Inverse folding.
């Protein structure tokens, strides 16, 4: 081969090598891009699922061993850590009386009553309650006495006690059973209602656990057929409480679940049937009709059922809680309230507003996310702890 030809062959080889490099490079690049796009899609899908799961499943307290006993009065007592009510009410006390205390420290005692009124109006008691408390200060204290913080405080305390006396018994509570209309020839049916996220399912878990600790045979009905993750969440709670759950697969009608659960409770001699319901706003007319129907169908199995219709109210919702209770009461005829998230809220004063304006007894209070964080409500203890909290 002549040197000219050799050179041509070299050039040809060179060109083929460059071409092959370009082709392989392009193939590799497109392959890499595809893998990267697929990875990104997977990541986006995973993120969306996590988001969905978070939306569906509210945060739940980590499972803890339940170490508790029932004391001589029948009260459920946690052995892990006793919940100190005055500790839980500290922020509420600060919001109510802390500001009044500061006012007295500031000195200008001519303006006290006007300013006290303003403070009370902004502390979730509700206008009717504020008027009643101001009336007591005006009537019971002379002008001179009104400049004495201790006398003002005592007068407010007495009047708040009087408000509770209208709808709450002053007898010491004897455990959770003393708070429900328990029928010996059961089952006793409890229906739990309220707006989204108020703490219904959590409270049901806590209630079920206390009733089970009293030796009662408890069935919890998964009547929230609306939210996809509701059944699973309730199952976690019934497992913790070690009680039975009634959660039929594929049943989407909450009335059917309520009816069947009460029938099962009756047929299988359960002491208590607790019916969970989906959260709803009192303004959602169709959902309010649905819950009325749920209540109605239970009477077909047991004419007196439900023996208790309890509204769960988030204390943080302040004045809104009063509105919710009024509307649910109009629709369903409530027998009591469970006030949740009293731990750490500054709006615990809503308890006084509820007693004044609704005359519906607060039966239980939630003071945390754990299974043992539920207390029977005693007006006496509440008022004492509230006034103790600022000491
Ligand atoms: N700190 C505190 N958190 C609570 C209390 N009760 C409930 N929670 C929390 O409130 C959130 C909502 O509770 P759920 O029991 O799911 O409320 P729900 O009313 O069943 O909600 P829906 O079924 O969506 O209507 C959860 O994160 C609970 O842990 C309480 O007493 N204190
Ligand atoms: Mg729920």
């Amino acid at each position: 081969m002549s040197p000219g030809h050799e050179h041509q062959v070299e050039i040809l080889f060179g060109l083929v090598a460059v071409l092959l490099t370009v082709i392989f490079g392009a193939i590799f690049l497109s392959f890499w891009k595809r893998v990267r796009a697929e990875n990104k899609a997977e990541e986006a899908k995973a993120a969306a699922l996590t988001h969905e799961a978070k939306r569906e499943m509210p945060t739940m307290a980590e499972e803890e061993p339940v170490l508790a006993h029932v004391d001589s009065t029948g009260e459920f007592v946690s052995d892990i850590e006793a919940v100190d009510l005055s500790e839980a009410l500290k922020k509420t006390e600060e919001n109510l009386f802390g500001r009044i205390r500061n006012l007295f420290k500031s000195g200008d005692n001519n303006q006290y009553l006007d300013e006290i009124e303003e403070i009370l109006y902004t502390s979730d008691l509700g206008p009717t309650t504020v008027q009643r408390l101001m009336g007591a200060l005006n009537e019971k204290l002379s002008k001179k006495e009104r400049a004495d913080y201790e006398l003002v405080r005592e007068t407010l305390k007495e009047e708040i006690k009087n408000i509770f006396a209208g709808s709450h018994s002053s007898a010491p509570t004897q455990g959770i059973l003393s708070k429900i209309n328990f029928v010996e020839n059961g089952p006793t049916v409890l229906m739990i209602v309220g707006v989204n996220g108020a703490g219904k399912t959590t409270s049901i878990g806590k209630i079920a656990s206390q009733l089970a600790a009293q030796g009662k045979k408890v069935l919890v009905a998964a009547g929230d057929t609306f939210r996809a993750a509701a059944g699973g969440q309730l199952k976690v709670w019934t497992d913790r409480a070690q009680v039975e759950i009634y959660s039929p697969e594929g049943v989407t009608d909450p009335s059917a679940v309520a009816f069947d659960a009460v029938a099962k409770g009756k047929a299988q001699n359960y002491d208590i049937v607790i019916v969970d319901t989906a959260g709803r706003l009192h303004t959602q007319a169709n959902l309010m009709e649905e819950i009325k129907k749920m209540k109605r169908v239970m009477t077909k199995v047991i004419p007196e059922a439900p023996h208790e219709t309890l509204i769960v109210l988030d204390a943080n919702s302040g004045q809104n809680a009063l509105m919710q209770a009024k509307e649910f009461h109009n629709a369903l005829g409530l027998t009591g309230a469970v006030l949740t998230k009293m731990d750490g809220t500054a709006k615990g004063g809503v308890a006084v507003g509820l007693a004044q304006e609704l005359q519906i007894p607060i039966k239980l209070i939630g003071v945390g996310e754990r299974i043992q964080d539920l207390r029977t409500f005693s007006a006496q203890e509440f008022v004492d702890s509230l006034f103790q909290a600022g000491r």
